[in-house]
Fold this protein.
Amino acid sequence: MAEVASDVVSEQVDPTESHSPPMLLVERFLDLLRAKDIEGAAELLAVDVEYANVGLPTVHGRKRVRWVLRAALRWAGAGFEVYVHTISANGSSVLTERTDVLKFRRLRLQFWVCGRFDVRDGQIVLWRDYFDQVNIAAATVRGLLGTVFPAARAKPPTT
């Protein structure tokens, strides 16, 4: 009986082990978005990817997601920042807890996001972000105030 328990323990994942391939793919995807490399980021998405911001309509397919990302980053000189606080993987599913920042000229909207990415065959097949609508509303108010009073702008989070 002790032998069986020993075998089970030996199969556990070493916590000091480097990131899994799905986790590395998601980190690369977020890095490409941060760099405004929409084409590079889109190539990491499956042709039939599902992109959902919970509470908003789901976008299906790489072409449509690419169009949404291009539109979002081109509108009003927009920019994007992402600060990953925690990332973990369970098999091919990767969870992120992060702060996303949408920038539109002087307007800076900074808010908390939890994301789930499912990876299959080296591509993201599901990208689902969850966020708090109250947090988004507060970020919008703070962002609008920050356009008039720069001291009110949200500062990049510390990690």
